[in-house]
């Protein structure tokens, strides 16, 4: 790591509040720590109960299967489904691949057209790109400046007749960068009126806010274990069985597990963990959301009171309780991250190979590259405390103020110079 001359901000001079340990994890949209209660539920299945859930002729298999079936019910209960509608996978990326490719292949006689949006997770976007290569037509809906899609855009994009008939819409429940919650009920209703299958990537929503596949009109829904305090490498796909009954062309062959939709020996401890994680969320979600939202609003207020030229990204009314995405304008993103290296957050830059690209989600909201690069995603979660939020806020304020003291742009703005009127020399 290079050190900026005369700037020693990587060294913290704050006294640590009691109970705060560094580094602080505040990146709960990237992954969540395993809840110790989830680990406790999994432990027996990592040791004594090691059977193959597909072994039908002895108790080792039956016990494993019981664990799996209990998990299926715990997940189904959290989302308003029945246990037969839950298909286990290796994670939400696989769930989404199965949903989109499975529908495209199964219903290709019906039509050729798929609709999604530009701010989806790469699991959806890259799968759509792949489907385009195999001949499907994909519409990528834009989002408005607040991150919400315009339902009129969706209505206009739907094709109801001909070979280009729309067969599938895939819109995420809540965005992993900006926390914006889409109008899922309305999208689902529109799809059902037109006989279109609706897939929803609900990874960031399930376990955080109420999600119900029936009232939300969802036909297929991707879930991930490690985003709701369960283990990594396990996920589920909800597949609707009635009104309408959705069929999928299987994408992994061999053995016919999971009602033929996803072959492969089940990850029993992982599945048990996902189930336990869902049950905890079901019991604690309401109170947890209130607590996280209070912490989030407290963090935001603290930053906004101390700093000028900040901006909050994404619609804050339709928003995940634990998410705050904030730009610190006139601060160079990389320097900011380096200055807060005892805090785990995400920046508005996506590291793709050697280059530092601004986040495509923030760009879709209309943010310029500089502002996108100066953005931080705070992901508050179950185990974050108020003392941690205090430390994080103080540290960010410190570093931003420090960097701005060194910023000629910020100086000019403070002196009232209109930056947009300046002609910069080409380089
Ligand atoms: C993490 C994430 C995924 C991918 O989930 P994995 O289980 O890690 O494959 C998909 N969509 C969203 C919105 C996510 O946040």
Structure description:
This protein has helices at about 35-45, 60-80, 90-105, 120-135, 150-155, 185-195, 270-305, 335-340, 360-365, 370-375, 385-405, 410-415; strands at about 25, 85-90, 115, 135-140, 165-170, 195-200, 220-225, 235-240, 310, 325-330, 345, 345, 350, 355-360, 375-380. With about 425 residues, the chain is of the alpha/beta class. The protein folds into two domains: about 25-35 and about 285-415, Alpha-Beta Complex (Aspartate Aminotransferase, domain 1); about 35-280, Aspartate Aminotransferase, domain 2 (3-Layer(aba) Sandwich), CATH 3.40.640. Strand 13 (about 350) and strand 14 form a beta hairpin. The radius of gyration is 23 Å and the shape is globular. Mean pLDDT is about 95; it is low at about 1-10. Bound molecules: pyridoxal-5'-phosphate. Pyridoxal-5'-phosphate (PLP) binds near residues 92 and 227.
Condensed summary:
The protein is α/β, with parallel strands linked by helices and 427 residues long. It has 12 helices and 15 strands. Helix content is 37%, strand content 15%.
List the helices and strands and how they pair.
Blueprint lengths: L23 E2 L10 H11 L12 H21 L6 E4 L2 H15 L6 E5 L4 H12 L3 E5 L9 H7 L8 E5 L13 H10 L3 E5 L18 E5 L10 E5 L28 H39 L3 E3 L10 E6 L4 H7 L3 E2 L1 E2 L1 E4 L2 E4 L1 H5 L4 H5 L1 E5 L6 H20 L2 H7 L13
Parallel strand pairs: 1-11, 3-4, 3-5, 5-6, 6-7
Antiparallel strand pairs: 2-8, 7-8, 9-10, 10-15, 12-15, 13-14
Distance between the termini: 26 Å
Distinct helical segment count: 12
- Specify Rg, calculated over alpha carbons: 23 Å
Distinct small molecules bound, one entry per kind: pyridoxal-5'-phosphate
Q: Spatial order of the strands in the main sheet?
A: 2-8-7-6-5-3-4
The amount of helix comes to 25-40%
Query: pLDDT average, as an integer?
Result: 94
What is the count of structural domains?
2
- Beta-strand content: 5-15%
The description of the largest β-sheet is: 7 strands, mixed
Class of secondary structure makeup? alpha/beta
Overall form: globular
